User: Fold this.
Amino acid sequence: MATTTVHDATGRDGPPRAGTPENRPRRPRRSLLPYLLLAPAVVLELAIHVVPMLVGAWMSLLQLTQFHIRDWSTAPFVGAENYRMVLDFDSAAGAELLHSFQVTVLYTVCSVGLSWVLGTTAAVLLQRPFRGRGLLRALFLTPYALPVYTAVITWSFLFQRDNGLVNHVLVDQLHLLGDRPFWLIGDNSFVALLTVSIWRSWPFAFLCVMAGLQNIPADLYEAAAMDGAGFWRRLRSVTLPMLRPVNLVLLLVLFLWTFNDFNTPYVLFGGSAPEQADLVSIHIYRSSFKTWDFGSGSAMSVALLLFLLLVTAGYLLLTNRRRNDA
Amino acid sequence: MRETTAERWARRTVLTLLTLFVLVPLYVMVSSAVKPLQDVQNAFTWWPRRPTVDAFVDMWSTVPLGRYLVNSLVVSSVAAVLSVAVAIFAAFAVSRYRFRGRGLFSVTVLSTQMFPGILFLLPLFLIYVNLGNATGIQLYASRTGLILTYLTFSLPFSIWMLVGYFDSIPRGLDEAAQVDGAGPLRTLFQVVLPAAVPGVVAVTVYAFMTAWGEVLFASVMTNEGSRTLAVGLQGYSTQFNVYWNQVMAASLVVSIPVVAGFLALQRYFVAGLTAGAVK
Amino acid sequence: MSRRRLAILTAAVLAAASLTACGGSDDPSGGSAKTLTYWASNQGASLEADKQILQPELDRFEQQTGIKVNVEVVPWSDLLNRLLAAAASGQGPDVVNIGNTWSASLQATGAMVEFDDATLAKVGGRDRFVPAALAAAGAPGEPPAAVPLYSLAYALYYNKKAFADAGITTPPATWEQVAEVGRKLTGGGRWGLAVEGANPSENAHHAFTFSQQHGGEWFDSAGKPTFDTPQNVAAVKRYVDLMATDKIINPSNAEYAQNQSVSDFANGKAAMLLWQAVGANLKSQNMAADAYGVAPVPFLAAPPAGGRKVNSMVAGINIAVFKHTRNPDAALEFVKFMTSDAEQVTLNRTYGSLPPVTTAAGDPAFAAPEQKVLQETLATTAAPLPQVPDESTFETLVGTAIKELFADAASGKPVTEESVRHKLSQAQQQMR
Assistant:
């Protein structure tokens, strides 16, 4: 998670960092060695990611339904027809994709934002030593270490309407609600999905921020305290600026993981998520595997991929420029 | 820099709420695992009225949990080790050499992290099958295929993390080694790697957990012999019933080693994760 | 270390890893001439239970023929995906169980062995099979893509004690009566009827029956979807109204997708249940066979013009052979074995289903009241789901639309003709 690789990822060779001449990468030599070192990674990436992805992109140009799945050469080439269909937001399929896309964006923004807030809060509050701190830290990390499906299955058990803990607490014990709400269907399903997602990912934010905090020199705080800075001032003028490099990477990683997350909705809702929580990943799954139309499913995936590439490139450019300006 | 009373109470309140948020699902997992099936199918109770360990006994015969556990362990650990091995070489190259295509490689690696799995699930599956037909190497429905798949899943992020970590190791060290006559690989193994242990551990943990939790590819690419826990646990929901108590018991049993291992290695994980970023 | 040594090291690591990995891989294809791979569907209490039921039969087959059968019981949640993958790749099992509603969809892939008359002759001939069950094994006018293995039909299960307590002497025969007795039965933590509201397949099956009773069709004769016709709107509304307006279904049922409705019925939380051959399951949940009665699924009291006297789909499991099998003869031999009288009696008795084989149907094992009702329904008032390639898509789309309507009903949102039509039109527009 290096700032330097963020540079590279934009496709530009970053300028050598000032002041650290010994860290400058070696001058280019006519050597095969770096390529040999890269070879296993390149071969694997090509074989497992890139080639299948290109095949997937090819699929998006075919009318690949159950009639043709056995022998692709019989599948009619329809060109951009699939794209026209799934991106025509006036048609039912396009409108559903757009809706699902909006749900996903909202979900990602909320999940990443809240995970970051919770993680940062917890890390800052655990900065000062006290009895039981180690125990709390271990506890907070547990949701991240728990395998995805066990965590999500447990939550789906909690969210049952009649026999779940959530309604037991909200309705029977706290009497906050008169009527037992649903969590796994209907409007609340979005909240349920978001809760599970945050439960799973805030510990990761906690972990990263905690590590970032450890690298803030104590004298910065002491100097701030000497100036009479209170908790909030210290947070704003020391902690957050010093965390910036960690946060830049953390937010990007969380964004990509959350946006593409398939495991959480799939385990929580099964193959057909309620429309209020119909994330793009699960929507595409249903469009391809449940309705056996791999052409339009692939078209949706490619559109999604382009979107993610754009957002990421924009994010990297923006954060880089700001740092260069600073 | 003393904490004010208000600050102390705010801290306690917030930490208590977070603790509850984390703890309650974990508690329910444990308490439901020791309830009889009848009780988990009825209104929720905090305390098991008739505690029993039946679920821990029955869960082995409802689904072949032992086999799934072995599969998951083999697949996840081999994938993690291989992924790290591959990532170390790649990250060393990117971190220590300037060469044509370095930028392209970094961009491609980063962008594979964005590929929606659903897009290449079917093509990859067909590639495995055709490769199997052509060469006799069974990748489909075998643990080998799953290992190959998962090791590439964690590869991009692993390389990314390791490049960051390697960058944070002063190059003065390798140059000193080279002055002593060490070749590039001896430099990697004797100088860079020993200094990068936390980074390597972090990446291993990450790769292991990625493989351990994956559901989508496992559901299409495995058969009974190679099925992993992620898919296998769905077997407790049968044509007849959902054996919630057994689901919880099994979840508990398969989670404890992973959680324990993670907590034991978390210090390395933290250090490895952020070394590059905070530099 | 030199470059060469690096290469050797890397190769060694990879080889070691793949060796450990290969230890667990087993051969997914047919393999030698004496081995078949068979994917069975989950019919019993668990995957392992099914395996234990099937294994002795497979051993017997091996004794008789020398052909070894490796069985894998595939959960329903995975089965269709796995079949699709096998069809797409020409890799996988030799013989499979399929839900009979998928027959035409899988037939369209061209991956299944066609049971033309010559092939049927190898497994005992067309006349061996109950015609209605064979009709649900592929598109009309084409050779079936499978043969029936277990036959099922929907029936109305009711809790005898609850009925007696409420002073109800005869099970309801019309939906109006269901609503009426349901209201009497609802109260005190018990509900009149339990449904599987979040399970698309269950919903689609009921949508089919109600549509038949209202004179509707989900596909026209050319195989084009006709989801939002007035008949279908009325049919779906009638079904959802059991919860929305009759209020005899616990709103919680709207989130049921894992057979919780069966548990509710077994535990006395619901007094009636619409299900296929649920006896064995109820027994496993400690509900004795004499605690419940079985009646045919009700009809409309006053069917509209064109309404048909249909109260169940022809449900069941078919057995099919993949064309890619290396041992077509052994595979057909196995199909013949599974549909033989002896196996039909043994397996169907265990699962509580009915043999779709004429010579086994009369066996006394199938004379219990539950099986009588199922038999009667299959013989007189069951119709096959539309055998069109888009059938599995219909189940997904219409079933999901109904799931959403149940969700609306459960949360108190009105379910109107307009909202039903809107959902069905939306579903239809996603077909192509």
Summary: Residues 92-125 of chain A form the longest helix (34 residues). DSSP finds 13 helices and no strands in chain A. The radius of gyration of chain A is 24 Å. Residues 1-22 of chain A have pLDDT under 50 and may be disordered.
